[in-house]
Amino acid sequence: MRFAIALLVVICIASAVGTLIEQNREEIFYIDRFGTYWYQVFSKFSINQIYNTWWFLLVMGFLVISTSFCLVRNVPKIIKDMRSFKEHIRQGSFRAFSHKVSIQTDYSAEQAKPMIQVWLKKHGYVFKEKEVDNTLTIAAKKGSSNRLGYIFAHLAIVTICIGGLLDSELPNRLQLWMGDKAPIPPTARYMSDVPEQSKFGVSNISFRGNISVSEGENANHALLLLSDDRYLQNLPFDIHLNRFIIEYYETNGMPKRFASDVTITDFATGKKENKIIEVNHPYQLHGITLYQSSFHDGGSKLDLTLYPIKGKNTETQTIKTKVGETTELKTTLNDVEQTYQLTINDFRPINVENLSNAGSAQPKDFEHQILAVTGSAASKVANDSVNVGPLFQYTLTDESNQSVQYQNYMLPVQLDGRLVFLIGMKLPTDAGFSYARIPADEKGTMQEFLALKAAFENPEMRRQAAQAYADKLEEDPRIDKQNIVVLASMALEIFANNGFKGLDDYIEGKGIPEAERVPEALRAPMKSILRDYLIFSAIDLRNMARQTIGLPALSYVNQSDAEQQALWFDSAIRALSDMTFYPAPMILQLNSFEHIQATVLQATRSPGKWIVYLGCLFLIIGIFQMFYIRERRLWIWLTPLDNGSEIKGAMTSVKRTLDFQREFTQFQQDFSELARKE
């Protein structure tokens, strides 16, 4: 019993940990939430999937065995004790009872016996009589079913644990340990490549897997994840996704309902059914329940434009691709052709962002979407959350097999009073995306910014802009305009290559021979001069860039127009500086798309569910029996006398509660009325 209790405590603690810590999340989630140290601790005990760890299943198994032995050893004794009236107790044991009554009455034994029997029946006792040495012993009892509480409570533990083990990964892991199954090999790209050893049959007693199917496509298998390996679970029916239904709140753009319109074809009968599967409305067939789990892109077709942002090349490219597809890109940087592999990871037509934290936009994951459907989305979304339109994520892999993830929004968003495009990137060491803000021009595009970027990359245009700035200065014998042209050109070149950080490094002498460094006493004024030359030359460079794309030179109609142009220029200069750290020589912009949705259904066969329900019923019965039914035992000895009879009675109970005391008092009072009057 002590061992069983210890195991039960371990299970309770582990279950509490599994409840408090989200299960089956990706590695970065736990590192971000708890830190590297605690993630390493969690990994050793597999806290992220605690209910399917070997030690948790082992403890569950030992608890079942231990508790079963307790039942086997004690149930026969309990049942025997319940059925026994213990009529063998003799009158000599009377003195040992603390709750007893002894009277002499004028009634004869024959008269007193039916009176005693009536009293016992009235108070719910069953009894058995035995006569020894002219004394009638009446052994009575009630509430003996109280002992069943022990049996049902322990049987509930065994039943619930067995149900839990059946619904865990244990049945599948047993097949793995027996060597019948092998994980899907990494080389398998299509269903036809998956060997039979990697598939579980339709008769598999228990499983929990995901089915991903795009609109217009079919699926008849589920993907099982056991530890870090993948397997396929064959299904006894086919699922065809007719369309994925998603509805949004008009106020904030969050999804309020999503469902799958599917056609189910039963392989056994050939019968077809059209069903709508949505959250809280699953579908069941052959003991398998299909739940609406999530959704994702099902291969949307995207029309992209490639804009070079480094080097002299200004030629754009049109790319037609789709989500999940890999395309080879070729671009030229400094007369050297470079090849990249473009993989489209995801596409989302609607993205709700809280723009109160400017520039920190992060697309909402599925938890936010599920919250919107199952909870009060309107009250949980901030008032300043808006739909910022389509977004697509992609990965660029260079010739050295180095990959960087990118995330771009199709439409510009309003941040700090400026209309900007958010261009995100995520290095392998980054936890999330960081964004550059590219200002939108008067047409709502990034054409002017890209033209300005190309102008910065053009040495001749930089020299012309520097010369134009010098020509605007008043004639003054103290001013060497040629020297200004040189310094302005140098500032533009340094900025084009390394942004503001490049200017600061030049002034501080980083990476420059000591003989060419700016003297320390002149660094502060030189920094101010170079920045002034940069900004004023860049103004002329902007006008030159506008001419290259067919836009007129800037002219300010009013103060408001001048302020707007100043905001654009400030944003552009900051973005140009940020883009020097952009790892790719190109930006991909989404022009149009054909959205194709995919649903994720969870397929579950859980026969242990009904066993767990039965165990819960046993637990309720057991608790009720133990706490609300009290066992009473009563012995009455009736001995005939010459002029009446003697009645002795004793009452006992396992727990002598107030109810027991009241019942004994009633027993004492009722039988005292039969006492002989002196």
From TrEMBL:
It is found in: Membrane. It is a multi-pass membrane protein. It comes from the Bacteria. GO terms for cellular component: membrane. Residues 1-664 form the ResB-like domain. Its main location: membrane. The chain crosses the membrane at residues 54-75, 148-166, 610-629. GO terms for biological process: cytochrome complex assembly. The keyword NADP does not apply. Signal peptide: none annotated. Pfam families: ResB. InterPro entries: Cyt_c_bgen_Ccs1/CcsB/ResB, ResB-like_domain. Keywords: Cytochrome c-type biogenesis, Membrane, Transmembrane, Transmembrane helix. PANTHER family: CYTOCHROME C BIOGENESIS PROTEIN CCS1, CHLOROPLASTIC. This is Cytochrome c biogenesis protein ResB. It comes from Pelistega ratti.
